[in-house]
Design a protein that fits this description.
This protein is of the alpha/beta class and 220 residues long. It has eight helices and ten strands. It is globular, with a radius of gyration of 18 Å.
């Protein structure tokens, strides 16, 4: 592929993505691989667009010759209705973070799951995986919870500011991993469940440039 003269144009769609380190990271890696890659942030806040505009952005990207898009908060689930094909993992997770544009068709994948799983395996090989508290049950959270349970977590406390979303995701995951215990939790329960946890995983947008702050009391 490094011998091809063709350049690669990709983008990152989401809220508050202008400061993201992802575009320069990928461009630098492409240089090392001998590829001509341009990676553009497409910031919904900068463009004053709602998250529901993700479908229009896909169409525009295809017309402009983009090869693909990364999709982040708050579009990972909204994008599903605009795709022509979805990988098995992404369909199972109900969220897409990568869209390939091939022959005018949009093909969705989820690398949140595989990326987190490999990072957990390689970066924390000796971590105790008995009971984990996870903050956030949205697009990224769904994928990470799936990866945690696949890695062997036996008890997962799924915390979200939206109780209905936490309950729905916990029910889906319990069906996929019947030997594990997945319990939806509210943020009010954190003082009770944090002392019982072997680990904490953060999957909310809090901490991004557009959502500054902390997702929980650090004293916990």
């Amino acid at each position: 592929m490094s011998n091809r003269a063709e350049s690669v144009l990709v983008g990152l769609v989401g809220e508050g993505v202008m400061p993201s380190l992802t575009p320069p990271m990928h461009e630098r890696e492409a240089d090392v691989q001998g590829l001509r890659l341009l990676y553009r942030p497409i910031d919904l806040l900068e463009l004053a667009l709602p998250a529901a505009a993700v479908g229009d952005l896909l169409t525009a990207a295809a017309r402009m010759g983009f090869n693909g898009l990364n999709i982040t908060h708050p579009c990972k689930q909204l994008v599903l209705g605009h795709l022509d094909e979805i990988s098995d993992d992404a369909a199972r997770l109900g969220a897409v973070n990568t869209v390939l544009i091939q022959d005018g068709r949009f093909i969705g994948h989820n690398t949140d799951f595989s990326g987190f799983g490999s990072a957990l395996r390689d970066g924390l090989p000796d971590a105790t995986l008995g009971r984990v508290v996870q903050l956030g049950a949205g697009g990224a959270g769904s994928a990470v919870a799936y990866a945690l349970l696949k890695a062997g977590v036996t008890t997962l406390d799924l915390v979200d500011v939206d109780p209905a979303r936490a309950a729905e995701r916990a029910d889906e995951l319990s069906g996929l991993f019947p030997t594990a215990t997945v319990t939806p939790r509210s943020t009010d329960e954190l003082p009770q469940i944090m002392p019982l946890a072997d680990g904490l995983v953060h999957c909310t947008p809090i901490g991004m440039a557009a959502h500054p702050g902390l997702p929980l009391d650090l004293g916990l």
